[in-house]
Design brief:
five-stranded mixed β-sheet; elongated; binds zinc ion
Length: 492
């Protein structure tokens, strides 16, 4: 592709009389909001305008171009005459994003600067090369470029993982600092960013995730104050379903910001506010959440994160290394099944995931449930019981209890009248008030063409109850219940 491009340019050069070259490499200062450290980053794929003025004339736009992946332009101009002066506008706009000058509604642009003055270059001869390269050190200018360069990576992440049959367009998003809420947010018209957030890359990617939800999936527009664990409706209380929808909408955005961060490590994204940190996704924990897992954004983000990350430093995440790099599977479901008009929830995501026959992720789900809800009531137990008869009325019973990951755990076993019986996974005996009647029963068997009547022993165990109920208890778990059916009748 590139070779063809240059060949085309060369032909134009020959026949259309191109002459001077306008070039430049443009970088902005990316400031880490936490440490204040500055690194220069190229202003990639950004719109650039080349302007010129001839002696006695007025400034006019000559051509529009875009910087490349290195933040460079290289434009062959058409020779007019000597003493044409050129100037450049670099616009804070690319195909994914357009950012307004703070506190205005017009797209931000600036000129390459040297010692605080705009760089202008005068042509003297054909074949002059006019170099406008500039490293912007001004932080206010740099903020605007950081927003769109960061968003571009979010756009690329989405584009890399689109479901092949989906055709929704991710349209260019506008970014404005005109906010009406206390914090930065996304409205379907624009990302509304507080000026102090213009270097907060993870926050920017989080808000951009809402735009991706709006464009390719379904954006549940519920405005909440939320901290990862708890969630309050800004405009009134939320039903359980509304909390589930809001938790998905925010949980996915937290995941998306970290997924983009992981996909583009060389970007060295910075910022520590406005979106859940990578640490929180690896060590999810809520101190006092009163909500179910499905209604908790941190839980949703942590489950999705465990489906893509390579290695967890958290020793409690014993199942984390089962899956890596399932970015595409997650995006497929997000893009297609969750794009059906209903506001997404984690349950809807899981149904669609399983419907596609993707890998079973129950262990990942329960692992995060366990970490998030330690000492809460939302973890679940299940049980299995078996028995062996010791005497007429005495039975040896074994109850095994399993946590939500399917692992055997020790629990306390109670009978249905809440009397403690035993620890599970140890055998114990119960007196069942069952009685056993032994009898002989006659049976006719066929040997050849001659029926023979034989007598065989049989027994009927008759209990006062059809089955016995055991209640499994463990601190921090929702009680499990299991039943054992003891009655049997071999005399029939
Ligand atoms: Zn959000």
């Amino acid at each position: 592709m590139k070779k063809y491009f240059f060949a085309t340019m060369f032909i134009h050069f020959t026949f259309l009389g191109y002459a001077e070259t306008v070039k430049g490499k443009f970088r902005y200062s990316d400031q880490d909001p936490t440490t204040g450290a500055i690194t220069f980053k190229p202003i990639i794929y950004s719109n650039v305008e080349v302007w010129s003025i001839t002696p006695g004339g007025t400034w006019q736009i000559e051509t529009r171009t875009t910087t490349d992946v290195n933040g460079e332009i290289n434009v062959l101009m058409q020779w007019k005459r000597a003493r044409v002066t050129y100037g450049i506008r670099i616009v804070a706009e690319n195909y994914a994003c357009r950012v307004n000058t703070q506190r205005t509604w017009s797209t931000f642009f600036t000129h390459p600067m040297l010692n605080g003055k705009e760089i202008k270059k005068v042509v003297r001869n054909k074949n002059d090369v006019l170099d406008f390269s500039c490293d912007f050190t001004d932080l206010y200018i740099s903020q605007h470029f950081n927003v769109c360069c960061t968003i571009l990576k979010g756009y690329e992440y989405a584009a890399m993982h689109r479901e092949p049959t989906e055709t929704d367009i991710v349209h260019q998003v506008a970014v404005s600092s005109e906010i009406i809420l206390a914090n930065s947010y996304y409205s379907t018209a624009a990302i509304q960013l507080k000026p102090e957030n213009y270097f907060e890359d993870l926050l920017i990617l989080h808000e951009y995730a809402h735009h991706i939800e709006f464009c390719v999936s379904t954006f549940g527009m519920i405005i909440t104050n939320h901290d990862g664990c708890n969630m309050d409706g800004v405009f009134g209380g939320l039903t359980s379903l509304k909390r589930e929808e809001a938790a998905w909408m925010e949980g996915y955005a937290n995941f998306f910001a970290q997924a983009v961060n992981r996909a583009f490590p060389l970007e060295k994204f910075v910022g520590n506010s406005g979106s859940l940190s990578g640490y929180m996704l690896e060590y999810p924990h809520c101190n006092a959440s009163t909500y179910q897992a499905n209604e908790t954004e941190l839980y949703i983000a942590a489950v999705l994160w465990d489906l893509i990350d390579d290695f967890s430093p958290n020793p409690n995440e014993i199942y984390d290394d089962i899956y890596q790099n399932l970015d595409e599977e997650i995006f497929y479901v997000f893009d297609k099944e969750l794009d059906n008009g209903a506001w997404p929830t984690f349950s809807r995501f899981l149904n669609a995931w399983n419907g596609r026959g993707y890998a079973n992720i129950n262990k990942i789900i329960c692992q995060n449930n366990q970490m998030l809800f330690t000492n809460s009531v939302f973890r679940k137990l299940s049980g299995k019981a078996s028995f062996r008869q010791l005497s007429n009325t005495l039975f040896e019973v074994q109850v095994d209890a399993y946590d939500e990951c399917g692992d055997l755990v020790m629990v306390d076993v109670y009978d249905e009248s809440n009397s403690f019986i035993s620890k599970s996974s140890t055998k114990f005996t119960i007196n069942t008030n069952c009685s056993t009647t032994k009898k002989n029963k006659k049976k006719i068997i066929q040997t050849g063409n001659k029926p023979i009547e034989i007598t065989i022993p049989c027994e009927t165990i008759t209990c006062s109850k059809a089955s016995y109920k055991f209640v499994l208890q463990k601190v921090g778990y929702l009680n499990g219940v299991t039943y054992i059916k003891i009655s049997k009748d071999s005399c029939k």
